[in-house]
Amino acid sequence: MPTPTTGKRPLSAERILATAARTLREEGVDAISIRKLASKLGVSPMAIYRHIENKDALLSALLDRFIRQADVMPARDLPWDEWLSQLGLRMWRAQVEEPAWIGLLGSVQIRSGGLGVLLDSLAHLRQAGFSADDAASAFFAVVHISVGASCLSLGLQQIRLDALIDPSDAAHLNQLNRDFGSLHKLLAAQHIERSLALLMDGLRARHTL
């Protein structure tokens, strides 16, 4: 009967999560299952179930581990608008560096790591003078931009521009060239810094009213 050890290394929740995180990063979410992890670790599935309740609990714990290791919170002594911009950039970088999470965000239960980012961010904005409603709106606007930019960045990496060009699109491409210079230049406008700068302009105007 398999034992919950491989060699002299005891099985632990952290060892399970480290193996699952590496599998997610290298093979994608479809490769995540209790049975497959058990095979990688050289143990029985029941040995893993002693530490992790089920696949949903595994993904939730993985997300919490990812958020904690991403360390997205900026230095607290920054001006609030720079702090928010840095928060958005850090969230975006974390996602594009671990793109397997992009398709899972919103479908995996958040634990204390994610809740900590939310509560600490709201508290920081309240200290900067934001109302409760405005603090929540500002935080989630940054989240929306970072997640959207991550999805777009991942999608653009997979696009071959020459495959998009069809003879029937000539008129549209000519119009794009007249208005923006080139399709490459238009796509460059998706950079998250520009979106965050526009958001900060709006928040500064609202916050000083």
TrEMBL record:
Keywords: DNA-binding. It holds the Pfam family TetR_N. Residues 10-70 form the HTH tetR-type domain. It comes from the Bacteria. InterPro entries: Homeodomain-like_sf (IPR009057), HTH-type_TetR-like_transc_reg (IPR050109), HTH_TetR (IPR001647), Tet_transcr_reg_TetR-rel_C_sf (IPR036271). The keyword Ribonucleoprotein does not apply. Gene3D superfamilies: Homeodomain-like, Tetracycline Repressor, domain 2. One of its GO terms (molecular function) is DNA-binding transcription factor activity. Residues 33-52 bind DNA. PANTHER family: HTH-TYPE TRANSCRIPTIONAL REGULATOR RUTR, HTH-TYPE TRANSCRIPTIONAL REPRESSOR FATR. This is Transcriptional regulator, TetR family protein. It comes from Oceanococcus atlanticus. The lineage of its organism: Bacteria, Pseudomonadati, Pseudomonadota, Gammaproteobacteria, Chromatiales.
